Amino acid sequence: MRETIKLFLRLVFIAGLLLLLCACAAVGGLLAGAVPDRLERIGPARVDLDPPQRWMLAAYLVARAPALDEPAGDIQATLELSVEQGQSAGEVVDALVAAGVVADGELLRSYMRYRGLDTGIEAGQYVISGALTPRQIAERLQSAAVQQVVLTVLEGWRLEEIAQALPTESIAFDPREFLLVARRKPQGFPFLEDAPESASLEGFLFPDTYHLDPEMGAEDLVRQMLENFDRRVDGQMRAGFEAQGLNLYQAVTLASIIEREAVVDEERGLIASVFFNRLRAGMKLEADPTVQYALGQQPDGSWWKSPLTAEDLALDSLYNTYMYPGLPPGPIANPGLESLRAVAFPEETDFLYFRTACDGSGRHLFARTFEEHLGNACP
After folding, report:
1. Helix 248-261 with 268-280: angle, nearest 10 deg
2. Choosing a second label site near 263 at 20 to 30 A (CA), which of 21, 72, 82, 226?
3. Would you call 51 helix, strand, or coil by DSSP?
């Protein structure tokens, strides 16, 4: 009886081994027929992986290769991560998943295991954003020595204000380099095709908080900001621009004016409706921020002169919407998501005028006629 059991167990073992060899052969065939660029994208395997495990991980990663270069999770999520000495890769990935920074923990774990990056995580402090790709996160976790620098870009800032906010003591480039890059149209960004060849990137450097590596260059920062814009301004919003008769460049131009006019979020759609109504009626926009943009930096260092004088409003500039009809030649600032949304989905009103309320709230009073508009003036 005992010999029979031994024989049975031996047969079960041999059958299992045969099944494993068949599975490995099938996976090998799958990889042999895989798209070459996907094999390249997953990179080389660690040398100490046994063949069956290497093949299985490679097959999984080849099938998921595009996801390795897409945002790993919620692009607005950021985690300040503290990795302790001896902490496992699984524990680190679990923390990233719990924070929403990583959506697919299995993909990140498998990639790190395949590449041998799961054993190289360095103890220390990290700032990990969901806008990073799984590949970038895996590589970033290999070194805590590089302390990231935080740059916060506010809605409504113009290029020069972003340059002034750069933490120059902690990064490898200065404001002049940044402005040089930001004032020319780069290649490789199809959403900029509507912009004139001579256009700067005003309007497209998306306001957000960015975590910078000290060694990155001005081109790297600009690319990061443009990629953020491309992700955040989604297809639904772009369809909204088209429904309003605007291409993307025109929509960003109008959104930049709304950004400088609005203080209260819920008024952005109303302000957008006023500008659309004026454009359709052939009226000039008569927007103060366009004149402020044309006036540039003031003696006190500010970029947005207020209040404007009659002389200011007579400035002969294509950006002066008191003098020239239609939209100005391009954006006057970098608008946030709510102002862009207001252009895509404006309120439907018959308002043609608005002015700041007199109560200091930052709100506006809207009017249908010029007489009503005059009646809204402060005493």
Report:
1. 120
2. 226
3. helix
On the question of pLDDT at 37 being above 80, the answer is no
**pLDDT, greater one: 87 or 329:** 329
Assign 48 a pLDDT band (cuts: 50, 70, 90): confident
Is 31 a residue whose pLDDT tops 50?
no
CA 42 distance to own-chain centroid: 24
Nearest to 204 by CA among 242, 244, 256: 256
Position 286 scores a pLDDT of 97
Residues 65 and 134 in one domain: yes
Contact 126, 83 (CB under 8 A): yes
Please count the residues of the chain. 379
Please give the average per-residue pLDDT across 194-221, as a whole number.
Answer: 93
3-state SS of the chain: helix, strand, coil percent to 5? 50, 5, 45
Whether the ω angle into residue 307 lies within 30 degrees of 0, i.e. cis, is: yes
Residue where one domain finishes, among candidates 189, 212, 232: 232
Q: Round the average pLDDT of the chain to a whole number and report it.
A: 88
Range of the domain at 67: 38-145
Q: Where are the beta strands (DSSP E) in 173-311?
A: 209-212
The Cα–Cα gap between 134 and 140 comes to 10
* Same domain for 153 and 140: no
Phi, psi dihedral angles at 281 (to 5 degrees)? -85, 0
